[in-house]
Amino acid sequence: MNLLDLIVFVCSAATCMRLLFYRRGAARFKRHISLLAWLVIVVTGSVALCIVTGKISSDQIHPIGILMLGALTFATWYAHGNIAQLLRMARGHQWN
User: Fold this and answer.
1) Could you please report the per-residue DSSP string of 18-47?
2) Are 57 and 51 in contact (CB under 8 A)?
3) Does residue 4 have a pLDDT over 60?
4) Which residue in 49, 55, 82, 94 is deepest, having the highest Cβ count within 10 Å?
């Protein structure tokens, strides 16, 4: 496992775990947001597991994909795991 493999694993696992342990609190339930969050959890968890088991390596992922994974990880942690906030940010709305 090289440094890029470690970076991809940490970013994938961190995003997956942050979304898994998101607490909705007073936020409203939205089915389409929940399905999107579930999809991101499945994809990032799968990437982390594939890196650990050696099924894929960072050589098989485009460098732009690794940068996007890092940006997704940062944005997910910044939004405290709230996918709806990420979508609002992508549309240009102000953060609360």
Assistant:
1) HHHT---TTSPP-HHHHHHHHHHHHHHHHH
2) yes
3) yes
4) 82
pLDDT in tens, 6-63: 999 999 999 999 999 998 888 788 899 999 999 999 999 999 999 999 999 989 999 9
Q: For tokens 């050589």, what's the residue?
A: 59
Instruction: Identify the residue whose tokens are 């939205």.
Output: 30
Query: Residue 75 contacts by C-beta under 8 Å, 6 or more apart in sequence?
Result: 86, 89
| Residues 58 and 4: beta-carbon distance below 8 Å | yes
d(CA 33, CA 31): 5
Nearest to 43 by CA among 13, 87, 78: 13
More confident: 44 or 89: 44
